[in-house]
Design a protein that fits this description.
Elements: H1 24-33, E1 41-47, H2 63-71, H3 79-89, E2 94-97, H4 104-118, E3 123-127, H5 131-143, E4 151-153, H6 160-169, E5 172-175, H7 177-184, H8 192-196, E6 198-203, H9 211-230, E7 236-241, H10 247-255, E8 260-262, E9 272-277, H11 295-298, H12 311-324, E10 329-333, H13 336-353, E11 361-364, H14 370-382, E12 387-390, H15 393-396, E13 405-409, H16 415-422, E14 432-437, H17 442-449, H18 452-455, H19 469-482, H20 490-493, H21 497-506, E15 510-513, E16 516-519, E17 537-541, E18 547-551, H22 553-559, E19 565-568, E20 571-579, E21 584-589, E22 594-615, E23 618-638, E24 644-649, E25 655-666, H23 668-673, H24 681-699, E26 707-712, E27 722-727, H25 735-741, H26 743-756, H27 781-794
Parallel strand pairs: 2-7, 2-8, 3-5, 3-6, 4-5, 6-7, 9-14, 10-12, 10-13, 11-12, 13-14, 17-21
Antiparallel strand pairs: 1-9, 15-16, 17-18, 19-20, 20-21, 22-23, 23-24, 23-25, 25-27, 26-27
Bound molecules: zinc ion (ZN) (2 copies).
The site of one zinc ion (ZN) has 6 residues, from helix 24.
Length: 797
């Protein structure tokens, strides 16, 4: 019998037989791509089925533990599981960064549980980003029924009455960083018995600890290490992550420890034919059949430029085509409204062909009840339903098997999500089809023309910046409140710790005594790990008074201005008012068929330079900047077509942001020599800036809200033509730093994305930006390529 990983058993064996194996997906793809004029497919990758590489149980794994795993169907580990487990068992800090469903949990369960069995006093602390994941893991560990382990979740939902028992008796405590921060570390005296015997710290799904949140978690872990040291424990850290670029570095930053990475995935997988699909460019508006409004009349220049057929329409057509062929298909769409548009269009197309056939397609909404989900699963399993358009709610909940094809409408932001969605396709032992339909956006466009960025070695890294002073200072205050800080702690908290402590002393938060720095107040510091500097804004449903959630202060002007369409867990709301003094936005449920896009005006000044590269006519810099911005208006756009309905003014105050930026300068002479006319320099830099921001998520897990940009033909601080790209969070979040560290690869990808786009003068797939403060004007696509060529020719690789 071949080994299986520690996943829930597949129910594939119970699914009815369908299309034959082998070439079915290839034939299906051939028919799909032959339907329109031109070939939208830019690449087909055959991801072959892979047999797993089993390894023997490590010799140190006790027979009792092997037997427990065997009872759950795990007869032997995969090689990567065994390798990571042995590294950790021997005392090394390790991160296992492999694909979705590759069985990462065995890699930490094995050494942790073996240690608990060998040493009846040892303890394990497990951290998950969500309570649900911790509850899943609790079930998995509890099912092993190991004597004396007594696993237990300890989070905000744990009844008071059980907490003391858990602290005293559980040896495998599952919690989250927030509880560690708010509950366990401040209560370290009560936890001293547990912490003194702590052998392992497990950090699951650690790629979710990125940006400012990740920087906070990095310091919570340092505070944990400090308490362990006080109690004489030196736990081993085992981390699990989605595949990413440079996981060892990310894990090292998160924990502050040297970490070894295990990245080779040796679990088995089914074969997939994966197609990259680029919707065609639409004819320019003046040659279209419908009379077009003169662009000047709307005051918007977007209308003048070419656009591609929307990914939603393209996905709807593909869904209709596959369903018409009897192929069980799941379409992933990023928004709930988008999923409904796709389902409705596919239904209409099918009913036009064969009345009644549209009933075989449905939309899946987040927030469905459990019974409704089961009914959908059943309908899909039995073939009553052939097509489903869904938000990524399915990534989390419904257990669907037996799908022949998965359509992914727009790159879901990370490779981990992409593979998770594609992984829904395929029955046991059969080939499946996955299609990524590119949206009109620089990153999607780049990816469909650069399959190596999807199928090759990952470059996208999880970044965080523990040196962010806006994170470091409050975390040091927390640490001081737990136990006075001493000079011996400075190295633990890293660069900038001494400066931050001095500022806390000057501000009256800490008092310096001969024995260290003491927290001066009775109350603990009020620090929210998920807050992003500035108080978060509460989103409240006006009719019920229900708190839907919070938005960090930095994004509130963009996302919660009056009239904004705000999506929360797949449900659409419209903002009635934003009260900045109260930190509260009132909303009501409404699903208009438009989306909203806020626009701002920005000013930037350089505060200091942290690092730079002098490359002749080109300079590349990393440093602190002050950004002043004001959200001044917003656009309404039709969801189905992307058409701009109108632009409406807003009256919001200006805001200041001290953050980290990467910027490059070019000499005016080098631009002239490259053929850029002086009058075209602003449009060239602006276009390069937009595309560079669009491509940064290729290098670091971030999205447009995490970064901003500014370009100018003459900046007073650099005295040269300059493009700035900055972190949109106070103090920086690591994105600009990653961009600086990978500058030539990042700008090479930016240049290629622009050059390879088939449009004439620039489109949303290359140099236009949906959140441009200047209405995408001026933009010069050919000159942006010249600018980037000058930078790349001079910059050391
Ligand atoms: Zn273009
Ligand atoms: Zn712009």
């Amino acid at each position: 019998m071949s080994p299986v990983s520690d996943l829930k058993p597949s129910t594939a064996a119970t699914t009815p037989a369908g299309h034959g194996p082998g070439s079915a997906p290839v034939d299906l793809l051939r028919r799909l791509r032959a339907r329109g004029a031109g070939d939208p497919v830019t690449h087909v990758e055959r991801v072959p089925a892979r047999a797993g590489v089993p390894a023997p149980w490590p010799s140190w794994a006790p027979a009792e533990l092997r037997a427990a795993f065997a009872r759950r169907g795990v007869v032997a580990p995969w090689q990567h599981q065994a390798e990571a487990a042995t590294l950790a068992y021997e005392g090394g800090h390790v991160i296992v960064a492999t694909g979705t469903a590759s069985g990462k949990s065995l890699a930490y369960q094995l050494p942790a549980l073996a240690t608990l069995l060998a040493d009846p006093r040892a303890t394990v602390l497990y951290l998950a980003p969500t309570k649900a994941l911790a509850a899943d893991q609790l079930r998995a560990v509890a099912e092993l029924e190991l004597e004396g382990v007594r696993p237990a979740c300890y989070d905000g939902d744990t009844p008071r009455a059980e907490r003391e028992w858990i602290r005293r008796h559980s040896r495998f405590v599952l919690t989250n960083p927030d509880m560690l921060h708010h509950g366990i570390l401040p209560g370290h005296a009560q936890w001293s018995g547990f912490l003194r015997r702590l052998a392992y710290v497990v950090i699951d799904e650690c790629h979710t600890y990125r940006g400012v949140f990740g920087s906070h978690v990095a310091h919570v872990l340092r505070r944990l290490r400090r308490q362990c040291t006080r109690f004489g424990a030196t736990p081993v850290f085992v981390l699990a992550s989605a595949t990413s670029g440079d996981p060892a570095t990310a894990a090292g930053r998160l924990t502050g420890l040297p970490v070894t990475a295990v990245t080779e995935d040796t679990s088995p997988r089914g074969g997939v034919t994966f197609a990259l699909w680029e919707p065609p460019l639409l004819p320019p508006p003046d040659s279209g059949s419908s009379p077009s409004v003169p662009a000047q009349a709307t005051g918007d220049h977007d209308d003048l430029r070419q656009v591609r057929r929307s990914a939603l329409r393209e996905t709807a057509d593909l869904l209709a085509d596959t369903v018409a062929e009897g192929v069980r298909t799941l379409a992933f769409v990023r928004s709930r409204k988008g999923a409904e548009v796709v389902a409705a269009n596919a239904r209409r197309a099918l009913d036009d062909a064969v009345p009644g056939l549209g009933d075989r397609v449905a939309a899946y909404r987040g927030g469905y009840l459990r019974e409704e989900r089961r009914e959908l699963e059943r309908a899909l399993l039995h073939g009553d339903l052939l097509g489903l358009a869904s938000t990524n709610a399915l990534e989390l909940g419904v257990d669907l098997v037996g799908l022949d094809a998965v359509l992914i409408c727009g790159y879901p932001g990370t490779r981990a999500s992409l593979w998770q969605q594609a992984g829904r396709a395929g029955r046991s032992g059969q080939e499946a089809l996955a299609v990524l339909v590119a949206r009109d956006d620089p990153l999607d466009t780049y990816l469909v023309h650069h399959p190596e960025a999807i199928f090759g070695a990952p470059v996208e890294a999880t970044v965080l910046d523990p040196a962010n002073p806006y994170v470091l200072a409050p975390q040091l205050a927390c640490a001081a409140a737990e136990a006075p800080l001493t000079s011996a702690d400075l190295a633990l908290f890293g660069d900038g710790a001494k400066e931050a402590i001095d500022e806390l002393v000057a501000a009256g938060a800490l008092r310096q005594r001969p024995t260290g720095w003491y927290w001066r107040h009775r109350e603990r510091p009020d620090v929210d790990l998920r807050g992003e500097g500035g108080a978060p804004v509460c989103v409240v449903e006006s009719s019920t008074g229900r708190l839907l959630g919070t938005v960090d202060g930095g994004s509130s002007h963009f996302l919660l201005h009056p009239g904004a369409v705000y999506l929360h867990q797949g449900v659409s709301y419209v903002v009635d008012s934003l009260d900045l003094a109260d930190g509260c936005a009132l909303v009501h449920t409404e699903e208009p068929d438009w989306s909203t896009h806020a626009r701002d005006v920005t000013d930037l000044s350089v505060v200091s330079v942290r690092s730079y590269v002098d490359a002749g006519p080109v300079g590349m810099f990393l440093g602190e900047v002050d950004v002043t911005s004001q959200v001044v208006s917003y656009q309404r756009r039709r969801i189905a077509t992307g058409e701009v309905i109108d632009t409406r003014p807003l009256d919001l105050p200006t805001r200041e942001l001290r953050t980290v930026a990467v910027w490059f300068t070019l000499s005016p002479q080098s631009l002239t020599a490259a053929g850029v006319q002086p009058s075209d320099v602003p449009g060239a830099l602006h276009a390069a800036e937009h595309a560079a921001i669009g491509l940064l998520p290729l290098m670091a897990t971030c999205d447009r809200w995490d970064i901003g940009g500014l370009s100018t033909a003459l900046h007073p601080d650099t005295e040269a033509p300059t493009v700035f790209v900055y972190d949109g969070h106070p103090g920086g979040a690591g994105f600009a730093e990653r961009a600086y560290g990978t500058a030539s690869a990042w700008l090479r990808a930016t240049r290629d994305a622009i050059a390879e786009c088939g449009c004439e003068t620039g489109c949303p797939s290359c140099v236009q930006s949906p959140k441009c403060g200047n209405g995408n004007n001026p933009l010069s696509k050919p000159d942006a390529i010249r600018v980037l060529d000058v930078v790349l020719a001079n910059l050391p690789a």
